Structure formats: C-alpha cells, structure tokens
C-alpha cells in the first residue's frame, strides 16, 4: 500500500536538499569522513572510488555502541534478504535509542521506500540529511521518490547534488542525462 507524500513534504525536503552544499555535518560525525569525501570528490585518487565509498559506508554503519552496531548489521541483513517485517522493529529501535545516528534514519528511509511509504521515507531522509548532509545515498533516495511521483525536475536536481558529493555514481549520471529536458521531450 503506497502512502503518497504531501506536496508540501516533498517541497520541504527538496528545500533541504538544495541547501546541502552549504551545510556542515553534525558535530558527532566522525572527522575521518572529511578526508574520505575530499578523496572521493577528486577525479582519481590513490584508491579506487569503490574502495572509498565502501569505507564511507562502513563508517556510516558503525557505532561506538557494539549492541547498536550488531542491531544495524541485523537490520541490513534483514533488508537485503527481504525480511522487511524483521527489519522494521530493529530500525525503529535504533532511531529511538540513537537519534543522532544518521545511518539508522537512512536505513529506515530505505525500508519505508521499499514498502512504498514515501511520506515516512521523506521524514527519515530529512533527518538523515540534517545529521549528514553529504549522504549521497539519502539524496539519491529522495530523487527516487521524486521520480516515483512524477517530480522529474526535483529528481534531476537531487541526482545532480548527489553527483556533486560523489561523482562516481555512474547510474545516477545516466539518469540525469535521461531526465534532461530535451531527452524528456523525445520520449
């Protein structure tokens, strides 16, 4: 069952997405992410982009509380296997116990997107981006919600912002090309 987002919630999150380049991460964001994002932004670094992305995701999914980290791993495994009913209480518990953990919000946004609960997903994406404005996954997720609801200009802008954060998202680059106004008229 799809819960469509309100136009105002889409517009509100879109406003947040547009502000991302000027925003700083929450103070509790690991400082080592700064160097990784700087390296990711360069066209070619000492390491492959995939390795840098994997390191960023590893930091995002890690937590100083070992139990929280184990719960995150369990939630990710549940999402990956399609056990959505198992993932929901795990992610609800993580955001309740660790409201400053951006990745807990992002994973719940992903679950909500899969369940087509787009209004709930938008709220979780907004919280993710308030904590970690460089979260290219959350920005991409917002773009996917926009696509699902026919908001093509917003989707294209979101994908462009995600690419500004992580220029190595080739699938998004192709989507931006497909969403260019001249390409939309050809379809």
From TrEMBL:
Q: Cite the Pfam families for this sequence.
A: TPR_16
Per its UniProt record, what InterPro entries does this chain match?
TPR-like_helical_dom_sf (IPR011990), TPR_rpt (IPR019734)
Q: Which SMART domains match?
A: TPR (SM00028)
Name of the protein this chain belongs to? Tetratricopeptide repeat protein
Q: Which organism is it from?
A: Microvirga thermotolerans
């Amino acid at each position: 069952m799809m819960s469509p987002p309100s136009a105002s919630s889409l517009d509100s999150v879109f406003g947040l997405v547009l502000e991302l380049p000027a925003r700083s991460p929450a103070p509790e964001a690991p400082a080592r992410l700064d160097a990784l994002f700087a390296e990711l932004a360069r066209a070619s670094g000492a390491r492959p982009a995939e390795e840098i992305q994997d390191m960023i995701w590893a930091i995002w999914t890690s937590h100083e509380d070992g139990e929280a980290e184990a719960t995150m791993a369990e939630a990710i495994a549940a999402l990956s296997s399609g056990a959505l009913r198992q993932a929901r209480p795990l992610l609800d518990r993580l955001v309740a116990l660790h409201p400053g953990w951006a990745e807990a919000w992002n994973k719940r946004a992903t679950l909500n997107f899969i369940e087509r609960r787009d209004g709930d997903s938008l709220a979780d994406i907004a919280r993710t981006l308030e904590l970690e404005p460089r979260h290219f996954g959350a920005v991409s997720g917002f773009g996917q919600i926009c696509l699902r609801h026919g908001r093509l200009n917003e989707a294209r802008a979101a994908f462009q912002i995600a690419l500004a954060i992580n220029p190595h998202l080739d699938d998004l680059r192709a989507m931006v090309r497909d969403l260019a106004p001249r390409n939309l008229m050809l379809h």
